[in-house]
Amino acid sequence: LNARLFHGAEPIATWPSDARAAAYGDGLFETMRVQDGSVPWWDAHWDRLARGAQRLRLSLPARAQVEDEVAALAGGDSDGVLKLLVSRGGGGRGYAPLRGAESIWMLSRHALPQRPPAAALRVHWCETRWATQPLLAGIKHCNRLEQVLARAECMDAGMDEGLMCDGDEAVVGATSANLFVSIDGRWLTPPVDRCGIAGICRSKLLPLLDAVESRLSVAQVEASAAVFLCNAVRGILPVARLGGRAWPSHAAVDDARQRLARIHPGFAHDIQSTERL
Amino acid sequence: LNARLFHGAEPIATWPSDARAAAYGDGLFETMRVQDGSVPWWDAHWDRLARGAQRLRLSLPARAQVEDEVAALAGGDSDGVLKLLVSRGGGGRGYAPLRGAESIWMLSRHALPQRPPAAALRVHWCETRWATQPLLAGIKHCNRLEQVLARAECMDAGMDEGLMCDGDEAVVGATSANLFVSIDGRWLTPPVDRCGIAGICRSKLLPLLDAVESRLSVAQVEASAAVFLCNAVRGILPVARLGGRAWPSHAAVDDARQRLARIHPGFAHDIQSTERL
To answer: What is the predicted ipTM?
Structure first.
């Protein structure tokens, strides 16, 4: 694994054994698309990280230093994924956070995930619910057991991804992507104020597609004219099957992908690669 | 930190940088009281760990090896705390758990925590709610951001501990202890089927005190004749103040402590130490 680890400003060789990231998932992360040696949506990733750090009262490393490391690790190959994990330093046994402790943070480089065999995704309705917790909603924190369990369900079902509902049967999103559905010619996406993650791709698509937030039921999603998932690594992922419903390719999804490709060179590259197949 | 780390049966020097414990809190832990070189409640801790592992479909290390390491680390000083953390191995980026991957596990030794200045605890009603998630309720998993946030509240309020409610305003328990209240001469403790942790001390006290599980409101707790918190490290901790209510010492709490001391040498030792003060 191509990774660099720091405690505050200082490089460290390994995670300390009392790391609060491992003990309590006491941290935040960003998963970022690299294209042509840089991270096109860096500002948005940093802003979300800062909002999460404020919510968890967690110290951030100096942005300039993180940017230097991002530049160093993003260079070289033309595309890939960077993951930035920022966790609370201070250690100790017990939940009490040490005020002002310098963070332990890790930057790692990964290959782009393989496209699933089919161009569009087969999506599973997960039994695992996304618990309602407004204090943690929206931010990309490291307490992700619900998503691990939901993803295990998808694997058991032989599906590519899974959609999760909250305890009130409102649809929240996929385990590692946000959901957009087209109803009456308008793109809708679930709010992320009670649970869910405020995805960076989602935040870019909301104005780009003139989309609106709306609580959605399972029945509404299955009745939609078109459905896609999205995240900052893969962009827009059309959904082909979900529960009892199948969708053929849809002009509105193609249009959304073209619009997204215009604002992010990585997704432009993906579309060109797909067309060459 | 006196710690030993393993991947499956093999000792390893440090956490791998792609550890799922740090990435997702994808693990379980036990915090155990050591007395006279052994862990008196070891069987109960292992059983809860095994239940958690079944729920998360996580591989456990071989019990015999863990017991050898526990014995090695528990020996020496007469009392202390052992922490066992078992996390899903396999790494990789993404939530999907690798089926059957050998666990990464850590055993660490810690000093007994200091008693708070006052003999009985001053307890805060936390604003942070404990989210309802039956799939994770009861087990002692490593997704503990809610407890970290709740404990930060207690520190801000200058209090020793905090009681948390769920989203329906039912009392769940303290951030790192279970709650027992005496109402009409009977000990009651909240159920842990929707959220909360099934504490080992709680499980020992339920039959010992002929206690029963009961959903409790804030008003019921404050109207109780006596209140204590309990966990496997400190045993029974009397509550002196909570919200607007104060309790003097109570014979029923003293009686419960004496009963507990008869089944665990560590808590017998604690009572003797307190009496010597």
So the answer is: 0.96
